[in-house]
Amino acid sequence: MKNQAWIDKGNALFMQTYGRYPAVMVEGKGCRLKDADGREYLDFLSGIAVCSLGHCYPPVTEAICRQAATLVHVSNLYYTVPQTELAALLVGHSFGDRVFFCNSGAEANEAAIKLARKASPAGKYEIISLEGSFHGRTLATVAATGQKKFHEGFEPLPEGFRHAPFGDLAALEAMISPATCAILCEPLQGEGGVRPLDKEYLQGIRALCDRHGLLLLFDEVQVGMARTGTLFAYEQFGIEPDILTLAKALGNGLPIGAMLAKEKVAAAFTPGTHASTFGGNPVACAAAVVVVQTMLGDGFLPSVAAKGRYFAAKLDDLAKRYPHLAIGARGMGLIQGLLLTDQGKELGPRIVQRLFQQGLLANFAGNTALRFLPPLIVTEAEIDQAMATIAAVLAEMAG
Ligand SMILES: *Cc1c(COP(=O)(O)O)cnc(C)c1O
User: Fold this and answer.
1) Which of 32, 77, 216, 252 has the fewest CB atoms inside 10 Å of its own CB, making it the most exposed?
2) What is the CA(5)–ligand 1 centre distance, in A?
3) Do 319 and 386 have their domain in common?
4) Nearest atom, ligand 1, residue 136 CA
5) Contact 244, 94 (CB under 8 A)
């Protein structure tokens, strides 16, 4: 069966939650995907920051196969080797003292919200997050998300969430009340349009938390796991959170999420307070162990930073050629956005549509930027190839 036959079949069956591109992906290798018609795509989205080591990275595939033939699942009433190995790697290379495993980004943030409340004195339950943020699609994480469009139709949302204007430390401080227990933010907003927080701003948020006795929660579901050129994004801001969430790239495509926390916060979770049937599944953990080891390998992180600079410089050059459409690159490491002008924003959806038709996968984030999340194993030649496609599409849009 070819693309159209599968698409027609799927459209009659799925709840229509996604606006999908007309391709049925059947195969992936490295930075490339192939659809049911045999068309090839250069994947500069990586399943939205998931397949960071590229599609079907052989050492991960091998770990999955080996673990699947050994032990696929046991209850968290027992210990497993892959889960323990992964915990040692994450705790050993982060601020965190303890980890909780779950299956997705939203679940990791749910766990973080629950832990922040449980670890805080009675009467402190309110969490302040930032406008433009994205924290997931469950009711609590949707309530934490600072974008109205994700709330509409789902009210009443759980209580205890407030949203502060982006970039305004004084406004954030003014929102802190005796009920506040934590501040939650992404060090770089991904869905919000590839928008990093200024170093001084994020350090200011840390200082606010210290001064008011609040917990600081970082959502690194999208920007953790080497995406920015360090294993965790917070490393580049000179501060540490109290709780950190991870998911997307952790399993290179297998569903897994994690929440890390400092000992004195983590101590609030005692047996029976929180759990997940599938969380820390041995196969997902075996994949994640290889992911973390690979990212910590010689030269990996510096190469992400270097390729990010290379890509950003090319995007900046392109923006100079089309100043009426594009402003320039914004991002960290290999999460890069091409910021569009007002005229460019109008064309955003059409630009990504044309990129797709030309065989380049990207998307339009926060109604402000073309977002590129190539696999971290991308080569300069592949970046050049992507740039040629982006340049051709902008030339076409410029008429
Ligand atoms: C994707 C994402 C989530 C939600 O993750 P899911 O696995 O889709 O639940 C939460 N926070 C951020 C920053 C994300 O990018």
Assistant:
1) 77
2) 31
3) yes
4) 4
5) yes
